[in-house]
Amino acid sequence: MTKLLLLGVCAAATFAAVLGPAAPFCRGAESVRDDDAARPDEPLRDKFSLDAAVAFLDNAALTWQRDRKCFACHADYAFLETRPLVSWKTPVHDELRAKLEELAANPRQVGFRVMEGVMAACVLAQNDALTTGRLHPVTRRALDYMWTLQSEDGHFDWEKSRQPPSEVDDHFGATMALIGVGAAPDGYAQTPAAQAGLNKIRQYLKNTPPVNLHQRSMLLLGSLHVDDVMTEAERKAVIDDLFAAQKQDGGWGIVSLGNWQRHDGKPDDTESSDGYGTGFSVYVLRQAGVPAEDPRIQAGLAWLKANQRISGRWFTRSQWQDSRHYLSRSGTAYAIRALVACGVR
Q: Any idea what the CATH number is for the domain that residue 245 is in?
């Protein structure tokens, strides 16, 4: 069984901010000040820097928690899934890990949704695997609680705010549960509660097959941790289709991975590569066993190194609307994972 790869990096600065109480989710985030919004015209860096990418990840996650006091897939969750792959003994990691433990330990607070239950439990489980290698008591309780949120047909009632790829359908929650439970240390996946829940997910996935390449790729990641959710032939088909989606410049575009409809009705850019498409694709391919030396993987790495922005991020246009390109943060996290998975330090 392939282990989940996580990454981390040395913090460039010490953060002494005292964060307020964690709230389970954001309201009216679009009205909150965001002076560091991603821009498609942000200049490229003269020289690639992994340190700059990690510093951006740190700042984006800490600022989001400080300003919004909530967790988001593109910010704090992405941070805790990614930072340990470089280095996790940093003040920022300690602060955000503590906030997520606080959230997970109080699931009956007002506003706590099914999505929070799954994400908190599964991100803590992945973080445990990448840091101490032991299942934290709060993580175990959060995972056990997660199964009480599961529907009889095996799905989790996910947020559907039309913000691809993480808040658009129930399929994302099912595959997140596979990844988190499979990665959980101390044999958690073999407990009776986990086995019952995983069997329900298997049935849900059988009745609700993936409808795009992103869903299939997420399922592939889950299949590396949990048996009987994807055959070897199906994994190979995902690998082949990811390589078929690679562009001439060596990168990938997120548009090629999904079949989503934009909220703003604007046309998608089907020609350009971006940070999320490239980082996600290279990361999935590496986890699936494609060697880092493969020329196609090397072309993807070359694209990432050549297209990092001055801020340290990689730009990805929102698949929702052109107001805040928060997907650039998720894309930057996946770019870091992809780079570290290929031995870049």
A: 1.50.10.20
